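Researcher: Good morning. I'm working through a list of sequences from a screen, and I'd like to move beyond sequence-only analysis. For each chain I'm collecting a predicted structure so we can compare shapes side by side. This is the next one on the list. No need for commentary yet; just the structure.
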Amino acid sequence: MRLFYYRAAEGNFGDDLNSWLWEELAPGRWSDEADTLFCGIGTIIGNAMPPASKIRVFSSGLGYRPRPSDFASDRWDVVALRGPLTAHVLGQPERAIADGALLLSTLERLRPIAASERGATILIPHYEAMNECDWPAICAQAGIGLVDPRQCAHQVIDRIRHARLVIADSMHAAIIADTMRVPWIPVSSSGRINSFKWLDWTMSLDLPYEPIALPIASLDGAYRDQVRRIIGEHYRLTRPNPERALAHQRRMTRNEQRPWWMSVRPRMKHHLLALPRRLPQPAIVARAIAQRDRRQTERLGAMLYGLKSATGFLSGDRIFAQRVDQLSVEFDKLLRSA
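Model: Good morning. Structure tokens for this chain:
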């Protein structure tokens, strides 16, 4: 089978798990020349995919794109889905299990470590948020460790395993923390945080999703967030619940199915994002923006400081073990049929 997953240009450890996890679980079963695609970890259902006679879906999810137009055809072989929301939209509720990253727990070298060996609280932002504010300064003020999600997945996992608490803006920071049995707290840094995706996963483990909205530290970041809202790429819900998430997903995907909008949106996005650089910025305005950003940075640091001693979420041992067993059984079936 040929692995298919999202590859962020700058790297994103959650997606990059695909590059080695499946080979470690099933050595020698993967080839770039194969005519069957394997879709594992990630929100990739509905994305443009390379030509293939068969697409096997194992724990992938929806979140940004509509259901594929040919999804009812024999080309799609759905073995497992990330959670009940994806399964509902695709009409396959029996395939809802959990995110495939839970199978990290089956690797002996990644067994959870004792609480006495764990260190400080860490923050893992969304990979696209890393350039939008001074995270090192913010985390230094809060007295917590910063983990860059763009670095090697092995390094990120190691930091998570050795943490006392994970403050997770990145969804896979929470997923892997839960897998390593490390408590986690969900936060939301901007409208790019996708409530549908988070609910899809948390519901798979009977967990609530109660994110803490973080202030956007920079004016530039706040402007970019408003652009996301204008162009229909704002995925965060104020009060996330399954019904609202499904309704929001339907609205978002309706726009994706309008050819005129899909042709206009990229140009609109480009021009809106470039607009601030084209406007004059007198010194007095620059000073006011810098002052505003300092206040927001201090506010964000104070919020994170308050979270570092909070009680995090963790799925129950029983349901976690059930989901790992289900994923393991379905993965073995998939390998036998491939």
